Amino acid sequence: MTAPSLPAIRQILEDSLQYANEGDLLELRYHHKALRTLTARDGRLERSLSRTRSGVGVRVLAGGTWGFACTSEASPAAVARAITAARAHALGSAALRRDRRAPPPPTRLAVGDFAVDDVDEQHSLDERIALVLRLAAHARGAHAKICSASTTFTELRSEKAIVTSDGAACTVRLVRPELSISAVAEDHGQRMAQAESLGATGGWSCLFVRDPAQLAEKAARRAVELLDAPVPAGGRAQVILSPDLVGLLVHEAIGHTVEADFVQSGTVATGKLGERVASPLVTLRDSGASVHAAGAGGTEPVDDEGVPSTTATIIEDGVLTGYLHNRESAARFGVAPTGNARAWEFSDAPLIRMRNTYIEPGESELGAMIEGTPEGWLLEGARNGQADSTGEFTFGVAQARQIQGGKLGPPMRGVTVTGLAFDVLQTVDAVSREFAWDLGSGHCGKGQPAKVDAGGPYLRCTLTLAGAQA
Fold first, then answer.
1. Which of 200, 356, 206 has its CA nearest to residue 288?
2. What local confidence, expressed as pLDDT, does residue 469 receive?
3. 394 φ, ψ (degrees, to nearest 5)
4. How high is the pLDDT of residue 198?
5. How many CB atoms are closer than 10 A to CB 122?
6. Would the CA dihedral through 221, 224, 227, 229 be positive or negative?
7. Fewer CB near the terminus (10 Å): N or C of the chain?
8. How many whole angstroms separate alpha carbon 223 and alpha carbon 148?
9. How far apart are CA 312 and CA 456, in angstroms?
10. How far apart are alpha carbons 374 and 463 in whole angstroms?
């Protein structure tokens, strides 16, 4: 039996609005996801995975309470049953709630069909296999000390139909490819692994704005360079952060603290609207579109409540000016929703999530920033780390190069950075014109995964660098 087309499913959802009761808000969201992953290692195809999931998620606001249900069958009868179940869940829990939720006020909702660039671009399985084998071989052959290399290519295709009883009626089509290349260097029994990755929203042409062969060479070169690299001494230092580290900082240590549901629970950003929290050189935004550079991995033209994505300004010239909202939190704060309600699959209810989070580029040049630093560090390569609701963070850094008298020294390894995010942003004294999205691969976690991106310019600031000594 042939599955219904996306326009046909949207029509089924629109017809199902007849089951909405007066005074309730009914939200219907169909979501189909198809995932394909390939991994090549050392001349062989190591992994090939294909997976699809589809269904309809239903939310009903009834009796001042949300109810949620879902069905893996996108038929009129199955959707009707899910609506009945969601309403029953809402009414069944309404008596237990102290605060009743009114339907959110009217807002602009999406109507029509939305698709990202090159969503219909197709490449055969043979082409994908050839890609991962070629890039793994390229990384393996980049240097005599590379003993192993692997490449993983993943493509996620997503189709949605979103219909609400107060006016949303749209379809959204996305494709999110990503590539990761890992190289392991070995010498005299010592090993060093390094990885480089790309992620985008759009077709191959959006992902490969940088030559993937150069990415393979970079992973191999960095692994070899760091094989015998020393570990620097730690301490308070002036540093220049690369765009991927800027992205990690603004996503993990700031972005989560300004998601309105977390704000209501109490974060470092709670109650600070209108206060100076950063240098006047810092403007921080979160956008559903890909700005300054193409293909950002968190691009969403419409959120999962049917709200068109906007650009939310979080910090303007150093002043905290806004939070990230869904419709409900926006009503509580008396502002317009920002289009940040996102669900991972049809069986998930939407949460407030980031999309593409970034600091606006400035007026400096990286070369001049390095030359103007008497003593400090150039830090490149975001690695794992953590941050909490106070904005305190600890992040791993792939490579550090000492700056002395405006000149760069050789690479060093084993570096972590730590600090309080808003305190670090207060110390920013230079922001580059150069800009990059650099966190489009992987996922953000907050109860459920989400594809996001983050980045920005190079920033010169002061923080604590931990190396060989604290």
1. 356
2. 44
3. -140, 120
4. 94
5. 9
6. negative
7. N
8. 11
9. 15
10. 16
Q: Look at residue 9 and give its three-state secondary structure.
A: helix
Helix (H, G, I), strand (E, B) or coil at 396: strand
The 8-class DSSP code of residue 252 comes to I
List the beta strands (DSSP E) in 131-249: 146-164, 169-187, 190-199, 235-241
Three-class secondary structure of residue 333 per DSSP: helix
Question: Long-range contacts of range 233-237, CB-CB < 8 Å, 24 or more positions apart?
Answer: 233/467, 233/468, 233/469, 234/464, 234/465, 234/466, 234/467, 234/468, 234/469, 234/470, 235/464, 235/465, 235/469, 236/462, 236/463, 236/464, 236/465, 237/376, 237/377, 237/462, 237/463, 237/464, 237/465
Report, in angstroms and rounded to the nearest whole number, the Rg of the chain calculated over CA atoms: 24
**Per-residue pLDDT at 1 exceeds 60:** no
Identify each DSSP E strand in 288-440 by its residue range.
Answer: 311-316, 319-320, 341-342, 351-352, 356-359, 375-387, 392-404, 407-412, 415-420, 430-431, 436-437
Cβ–Cβ under 8 Å, residues 134 and 126? no
The CA-to-CA distance between both ends of the chain, in Å, stands at 64
Give tens-digit pLDDT for 243-287: 999 999 999 999 999 999 999 999 999 999 999 999 999 999 999
Rounded-to-integer distance, Cα 381 and Cα 229, Å: 15
Distance CA 349, CA 304 (A): 9
CA–CA dist 309, 357 (Å, integer): 13
CA distance linking residue 78 with residue 379, whole number of Å: 54
44 sits in which H/E element: strand 44-62
Q: What is the pLDDT of residue 101?
A: 86
Let me know: does 377 contact 403? Beta carbons within 8 Å. yes
- Helix 125-140, helix 212-227: angle, nearest 10: 30
CA distance 302 to 339: 7
Q: Please provide the DSSP assignment of 227-250 as one string.
A: HSPPPPP-EEEEEEE-HHHHHHII
Give all domains of the chain, ordered by start, each with its CATH number.
6-227 (3.30.2290.10), 235-466 (no CATH)
Total residues found in the chain within this entry: 470
Structure token pair of residue 292: 């300054």
Residue that is written with structure tokens 């069944």 in the block = 92
Query: Containing H/E element for 112?
Result: strand 111-115
Strands 436-437, 235-241: pairing is unpaired
Beta bridge partner(s), residue 320:
315
Q: How far is CA 55 from the centre of its chain?
A: 24
Helix (H) / strand (E) containing 65: strand 65-71
Give tens-digit pLDDT for 152-196: 999 999 999 999 999 999 999 999 999 999 999 999 989 999 999
